[in-house]
Structure formats: structure tokens, C-alpha cells
Amino acid sequence: MKLFNKSLKPEEVVNFLKENPEFFIDHPEVIEYLEIRHESGEAVSFIEKQVEFIKSKNLATSTQLKDFIFNANVNELLFAKVRKLISIILNSEDLENLLTATESFFTKELGTEKCKLLFFTQEELYRVPEKRIIEPEIATEIFSNIFKEVDVFLGKISHGITSLTFGGESNIKEAVIAKLNSEKIAGIFILGSSEDEKYTPEQDTLFLSFIVEVLSHQIDRLIENRD
After folding, report:
1. What is the per-residue pLDDT across 145-170, written as a single tens digit (0 to 9) for each?
2. Which one of 3.30.70.3270, 3.40.470.10, 3.40.50.920, 3.30.450.40 gives the CATH number of domain 94-226?
3. DSSP letters along 150-163, please?
């Protein structure tokens, strides 16, 4: 395209029209030279094309609004569930009841396939049930690499970890493994799934980290009260 022997780039024309939105109103004679085609190749009027564009833009805006409302509703529901879980944790006065109630909440209320709270300690030290114990030597060997750079791991786990945490018959493929922040006892909070791509490293862990923090504090309090 040339104007006064000067070549214009398409983006320059676009910028000019953006800066002069009334150009076609002031110069209606230009419109007759415009030719805009559908994908089918049929010529359509400029007005028709503009209407189509506005409709598509409104549709996109409407979709964004619906997504925003949906996400707000989801967040509100999640907040209500988190508040309920926090209440359960803080009102627990027995360690085993706390652990069982937390696991049950994740599976029944949040739809988690598997949930376990496990400790790396000797059974007699804190009177923790044997089913919740992983020998410290074994735990160090297996989980030291997992927690080398992160406190919450997400992704695929080996069959060895699956067997150790959920049992040999489990078909768990992926997990979220969070390190407890307890000052009294080492351990993990683990969620498991048999689905692929259920837990991936790029997922946000803010919610779980908050739960683990509160849970760890309550575990410390209940252990201290036992002493």
C-alpha cells in the first residue's frame, strides 16, 4: 500500500484507524472499496462484519464473567470446607482422633482418593499406632531426596513409596507429599491418586501448606499434653 509514494505497513494502517475511530464516518465513500470475506469466500458488508466482531467480543466477555463467578463460587465453597477442617483440627483433644478425622475429611469432604498421616519414630516414644509408623532409617533413605528442595512434593511416585505409604495392593501412581512442621515428631501428610496428571509440580500448594502448618501445631500440642 502506498500513500504519497510512501509505503505503509499494515500495522501503521491499523494504528491510524485505532487513533481515528470516526474515519469511516467522515469518509463514507471509502467503505465501498472495502472487501471483507467469510471463510467461505462470500463477500459481506463492513457493518455485518463489525456486528459479528462485537458479538464475538461480547461472548468472550460473557464467558470470562461466567468463569469469574464460577471460580468465586468454587473459592467460597473451598473456604467453607477449609474453615470446617480447621475447626475439626483445633477442637481435637486426642491424637489418633485428630489423624483419623483429618484423613476422613480429605477423602469424604474433598474427594481425595487416599490420605495418610505417617510418622518417622519409634512406636513407644509417642505412643503412636504401629500402622502410622515408618522406621526413621527407612524414612530418611526414601524421603531425604524428595524433601531436598521442597517441603511439598507433587508428582509420580515409585511403587516402593506406594507400598510403604498405602500398602502393597494399592494402585496409587501420583501423590502430594507434605513434610510435617512439627517440633516434636517427624512425619508426612500424603495424598494419593491412581489417576495420571492428578498431581503435577506446577499446581499451587498454598492451601495444603496452610493445613499442614495448623495440623503440625495441633500434633505438637497433643503430644505435649500427653507428656
Report:
1. 889 889 999 999 999 999 999 998 88
2. 3.30.450.40
3. -SEEEEE--HHHHH
